[in-house]
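LAB NOTEBOOK - FOLDING QUEUE
OPERATOR: T.R.
BATCH SIZE: 2
PURPOSE: Compare the predicted structure-token outputs for two unrelated chains run back to back under identical settings.
PRIORITY: normal
REVIEWER: second-year student, initials M.K.

ITEM 1
FIELD SEQUENCE / FIELD STRUCTURE:
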Amino acid sequence: MSQLPDPESLRLLVLVGDVGSLSGAAAQLGLTQPSASKRLSALERRLGLVLVNRTRRGSQLTDAGRAVAGWAQRVLQEMEGLLTGTEALRTKRDAELRVAASMTVAECLVPGWIGELRRTRPELYVGLQVTNSEQVPDLLRSGAVDLGFVESPRAPAGLSARQVARDRLLVVVAPGHPWTRRRRPLSVAELVAAPLVLRERGSGTRETLDQALRKAGVGEPQPLLELGSATAVRNAVIAGTGPAVISELAVEADLADGRLVSVAVEGIELRRDLRAVWASGRVPVGPAAELLAVTRRRGKKA
């Protein structure tokens, strides 16, 4: 057999056996009797069997027809199970969104984005994994998440990306730190010579700082502490531990309230793009596409 029977022909055969009439079976399927007769004849030719005896009193299945109808019934039940199962998976997918975001984006932007999305989709479940920018691509490539957000200087290789916000890194200190009394900006050399409270390696913030220092032609920063989140860095600086380089998004309220002071630095570029990323070759659909639309509407310009 070069081609499998189509499901509607199998359904017609089963109905002929149930109602004992080709015209009755055709009516239940919304077919004309001539169309049903042609379909049944095509099925017989495809299988090489006589399946139905047509008489003036009605249509009866042959022995071969009853056997084929029994097998067809099981095939149709399995197909129904397939359709029901895929619909359940589709419904689950449409009510679920899995996101991975780098620390700063997760702390400062994602809650607002998700909040706006859920105002129009209150039934939506959003699972958020908070990690650093280095780990987000791995989660996407493994299929563990549908959409990611990173703050690294470059878009991750092998993924599609779109800018969703702008940010910049600031040098911040606690009030009373000697740098707050400076009349001139810090030089890059002074910055790199000072022990700093830093994000851990692998974070977008640390990668942005390291790359900017390399472009400025100076060495790596000196870690006083290496911490795993912008909140931890912020708290350490407020406690007077030392200066830090941190996202402006993470300290806007502290700068406005005077808990932290920003110190100007010359000779270094610390602006960066924040990006949404997803599997290359795929177009975000459903909740992932809806969340991307929210980021466009709420795009923040530093």
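ITEM 2
FIELD SEQUENCE / FIELD STRUCTURE:
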Amino acid sequence: MKIAIQGVLGSFHHQVAQQYFGKDIEVFGFNTFEEVAKSVESDAVDVAVMAIENSIAGAILPNYDIIDRHELYVVDEYYLPISHNLMALPGQQLADITEARSHPMALLQCKNFFAKHLGIKPIDDVDTAYIAKVISEQKIKGLAAVASVKAAEFYGLELLAEDIQTIKNNFTRFIILQKDKPQSVTTPTKASLKITIKNQKGGLAKLLTVLSDNDLDLTKIQSIPVMSKPWEYSFFIDTLIADEAKFNKAMESIAANYGAVKIFGTYQSRK
């Protein structure tokens, strides 16, 4: 099976791909989430693993838009406990490090560590494991990566500080994406969807009432403006499904009375 991820081998995405699909897979790393989505859309790969939110840093809102634009389906989710670690070339000490590079979301999750180590400047970069790879290949001293233990092992780096994330109970939610609509074989307990409501007074309140009346427990709601229609908004929503019939009823009611509904996927909640 061909799996697309954002980042390089040793990244958290790579870790999820192996834990979810097993090690008998072919992993293709891309620099951006946009490229990941394109690879699925073009059939270059079978599926993709994509981070969508973190328990500390929140949602990666652009990824919802990417899924929407490339017409991809969410078929499952996976929660990975995240441990961020400061790593550098072997033989260096913490005092030798002047810069630490990583993905912006990773650095955001380690704000307290850098507040206590003002001599180390955190700098945004493309990926966690990618920086570990660059340090290893180019033998860069004075530079550290913030990445997983697997990345340190993969690229032969030494851990200078472990579990540096501010909140230790730190999870990232990943979703599994594919091009074709899946055939449901089990009763879904969660759904990801986009609802674009009409520009009318109390539209959002009415929408939430319909969802609540049908026992849909929202786990996430994010809004973005509709660029072509001023003062209209789309809402990316994740909701738990208590009763599939009620879920279907709610979607029909919203589509008929309040706005457009696009279901990215229904699947089993893993939390």
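REVIEWER COMMENT (ITEM 2): The mean pLDDT is 94.
FOLLOW-UP: none requested
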